Automatic annotation (TrEMBL):
Transmembrane segments: none annotated. It is found in: Endomembrane system. Its main location: membrane. It is a lipid-anchor. The keyword Protein transport applies. Keywords: Lipoprotein, Membrane, Methylation, Palmitate, Prenylation, Protein transport, Transport. GO terms for biological process: endoplasmic reticulum to Golgi vesicle-mediated transport; protein transport. This is YKT6B protein. CDD domains: Longin. The gene is Ykt6b. PROSITE patterns: LONGIN. The lineage of its organism: Eukaryota, Metazoa, Chordata, Craniata, Vertebrata. Pfam families: Longin (PF13774).
Amino acid sequence: MRLYSLSVLYKGDPKVHLLKAAYDVSSFNFFQRSSVQEFMTFTSQLIAERSALGSRASVKEQEYLCHVYVRNDGLAGVVIADNEYPQRVCFTLLDKVLDEFSRQVSKMDWPSGSPATISYSALDGYLSKYQVQTPGT
């Protein structure tokens, strides 16, 4: 059971943009990592774009399960995990991350923010904290 990506996005008008993200692509071949990360960024944006405000969904994409939560204020979170990772845990993580993000980052920064301009450093910590260690890994 693995988490691969945790993203915070803003669903504005007309499109969704990434505010902050953390990735764990260590299980992939070194030469695949950047393309896997690009795929996860693109997929996160696409799923958030296609989700209604105030909705939660789990979408299967290739061998991954993508869990999205879009709040009514336009803040969205996406977790990309493998198929075995518990859905309930993913949504608990998204609730926690989006609540904390909205307290630490001014709402005025969301529409124009980008990973380079938003200072929120907790995503990497959450990604590793919520990684499920299985015997032999």
